[in-house]
Amino acid sequence: MDIEVSPAVNYAVEGILSYARKGLTGPGGRLPSERALSQDLRVSRTTLRAALRELENAGVISGRPQSGWYVTDDRTVADNSTELESFTEIAGKRGFTPSSRVLRFVERPATLDESERLRIPPASPVLELRRVRLLDDVPTCVDTAVLPVKLCGALRDETFERASLYERLQTVCGVDIERTTCILRAHGASQETAEYLNLDPGESLLELDSTGYAKDGTPVLISVLDYRGDAYRFSAELSRIGSFAAARD
Predict the structure, then answer these.
(1) What CA–CA distance (Å, rounded) separates 30 from 24?
(2) Which of 104, 107, 137, 220 is most buried, taking the most CB atoms under 10 A from its CB?
(3) How far is CA 123 from the centre of its chain?
(4) Per-residue confidence of the chain (249 residues) as pLDDT tens digits?
């Protein structure tokens, strides 16, 4: 990378980049502290901060308040709100290889909230599938899916390290998810989730909580995906109805 700056700052830039080049930190990884970088590269804190700003402006790193500097991860899941696609489909379009690490796959009674969302009697049996989803073997999100056994019980014997849940629902259960309703919110990572995603507890996650419906309107899937804050981008096209003048009238 060529950045037009003073020789001292350029030296610091190359030194910071060497951490990624030598495998000391990969995409999404955190750089050493500014004090450690300054001592290791033998540059002043002023020079180091100028180099960090240059790399941030170039999109190579990003700063997080009270957390540090991170190498920008290009393994970003881009979600277009007009399209309903699975994690596997989105990853394939971006040229990444998706995989999963199954944390839990059990049958259990539905909670009251789950029974209401799936329109089943309280404590009805459901399947819970919890996975760490990876792009090119890099942990990207923790995915928890809940499905009613009466519709999806045939999935009990399936494995999901590589398989798409949407595809298995269609092939094994004859269920097509036609639409979803989604809620997007931010929250801090728990100790458990942070360990799965190589984060520190409390770091930012983007949670996508959705309910999937079959063609006849039957709810068949509750899906909660906790994405790394630097691995998910949501886009939507919004239109104004009416005008300010009409509103005042």
Answers:
(1) 10
(2) 220
(3) 30
(4) 444 457 888 888 888 877 655 544 555 667 888 888 888 888 898 898 888 888 877 767 777 766 788 776 555 555 554 556 667 776 666 677 888 999 999 999 999 999 999 999 999 999 999 999 988 888 989 999 999 999 999 999 999 998 889 999 999 999 999 889 989 899 999 999 999 998 889 988 999 999 999 989 999 999 999 998 877 666 666 666 665 555 555
